[in-house]
DNA sequence: CGAACAGTTGAATTCATTCAAATAAAGTGG
DNA sequence: CCACTTTATTTGAATGAATTCAACTGTTCG
């Protein structure tokens, strides 16, 4: 079913450097031991390999430990669209809970490590550890909010604005994980960016060139530097959160 | 906080005609009694009144008993977009779980009745009734899938296709609730439709006129008849599920 | 009845797409 | 390691779908 290679966990969730994403805070030692037991195995994915495909029966949800994945939905007529890009600490496979089958394909954009969380056992444990249940609900709900922001972008913004929003969102998420946030490698192709943003790759390319020309960014292949954050935030139509402190000081 | 009018429940969830949506199947009598206790009150909304606003602290989620509501998100710069239209049996307010504040506005499109479900008590009860917890997770997950389909529509379809998909989706949801599904009243304005579909109202109007001209629909104000279902499904790029049986027979 | 609002239709404009071609990078096999 | 194919990306020019601007019609409501 999966074109993947299974590992047994070499290190536990309780020592996972990404624990702040995977696990709720304020949980006891014995709780953690139980949660560790949930993650029976881990998968190592090569670039292009799929974690699951739409229609596969839901057995697990997944937590990204290292790497980047995309999820995409497809239409009956063969057209398909990238719905999300996923970074370490994010949970995948949640769209399979609704009717027991994943509704999307999840594909690695680079070599990645993913923890497998048996869903039935997880639901059982969540019942016993209230804070885990709450955290799970929060994760599902935030996922909703994410998608709704994406809807707003596709429905109301011009290509240029969508791209700016996308770059800034990516930057913020990298920052939250302790990665460099003003200079990084785009793990997705222009085709995948365009698909995610609802625009053609030629437009993606043109907009990136335009951003570079205006001094907002520097881009060389998939390596990007965000130069003028204020300019980007202005383009995206949102206030620059990095300046929150300064604003409050005024 | 809410510009609403509170009622005490005159009839219980256990006798709610919409129970198949509100409540999981396969639940015991005593479970039902407990669930009844969750719904402490009900709100009656006039057209245009809001059930909650973004930023309001989450205390409850809501189940629509009668009527239609829209949810919308807004951008910092004032632009806003309709994210969803909601029919009886659907749960609202789920986007507030993530960080304790609703992320959207929910506004009645017509006179509506909504059940208030205290969220904390609900989470507690869900822990005690596994099937209720499971049902809740399914609802959240389906919500995700819904939004992702919407994303696909905004990102990959032309205006005409989006409108066809929208009309068919509405029709299916009405059918699932036992309403007339080939002839009904649109509860939303052209502006709201356009906002939801990511197109201008002039385009909505033009496309509707075009559909009528081609004999796909009949429309007079907000009253619509779907005439040529096959044609609409073809436009939407999806197979007509009403013909599933016939296809299987071939 | 008249004002305000909602919806339709036409014409001009624009943003993004499509088509086409060039360039750059990555992979392949000798 | 190099020539060569394949894939990814960029850029230009022509086209097109949807928007914007504008005018008009139909509804609703005080």
TrEMBL record, chains A, B:
Residue stretches making up the HTH crp-type domain: 157-230
Organism the protein comes from: Polynucleobacter antarcticus
A molecular function GO annotation: DNA binding
Domain Cyclic nucleotide-binding positions: 23-93
Swiss-Prot/TrEMBL keywords: DNA-binding, Transcription, Transcription regulation
Pfam families: cNMP_binding (PF00027), HTH_Crp_2 (PF13545)
InterPro entries: cNMP-bd_dom, cNMP-bd_dom_sf, Env_Response_Regulators, HTH_CRP, RmlC-like_jellyroll, WH-like_DNA-bd_sf, WH_DNA-bd_sf
Domain of life: Bacteria
Protein name stated in the entry: Transcriptional regulator
CDD domains, per database record: CAP_ED, HTH_CRP
Gene3D superfamilies per record: Jelly Rolls, Winged helix-like DNA-binding domain superfamily/Winged helix DNA-binding domain
CC per GO annotation: cytosol
């Amino acid at each position: 079913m999966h074109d993947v290679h299974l590992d047994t966990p070499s290190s536990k969730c309780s020592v996972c450097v990404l624990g702040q994403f995977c696990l709720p805070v304020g949980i006891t030692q014995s709780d953690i031991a139980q949660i560790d037991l949930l993650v029976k195995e881990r998968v190592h994915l090569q670039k292009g390999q799929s974690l699951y495909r739409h229609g596969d029966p839901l057995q697990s949800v997944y937590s990204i430990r290292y790497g980047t994945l995309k999820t995409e939905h497809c239409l009956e007529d063969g057209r398909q669209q990238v719905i999300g890009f996923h970074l370490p600490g994010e949970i995948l496979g949640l769209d399979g809970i609704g009717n027991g089958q994943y509704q999307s394909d999840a594909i690695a954009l680079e070599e990645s490590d993913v923890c497998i969380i048996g869903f039935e056992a997880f639901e059982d444990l969540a019942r016993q550890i209230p804070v885990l249940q709450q955290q799970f609900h929060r994760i599902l709900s935030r996922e909703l909010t994410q998608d709704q922001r994406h809807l707003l972008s596709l429905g109301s913004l011009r290509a240029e604005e969508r791209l700016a929003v996308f770059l800034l969102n990516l930057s913020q998420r990298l920052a939250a994980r302790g990665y460099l946030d003003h200079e990084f490698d785009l793990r997705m192709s222009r085709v995948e960016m365009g698909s995610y943003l609802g625009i053609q790759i030629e437009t993606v390319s043109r907009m990136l060139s335009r951003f570079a020309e205006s001094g907002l960014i520097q881009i060389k292949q998939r390596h990007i530097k965000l130069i003028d954050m204020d300019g980007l935030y202005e383009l995206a139509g949102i206030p620059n959160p990095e300046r929150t402190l300064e604003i409050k000081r005024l």
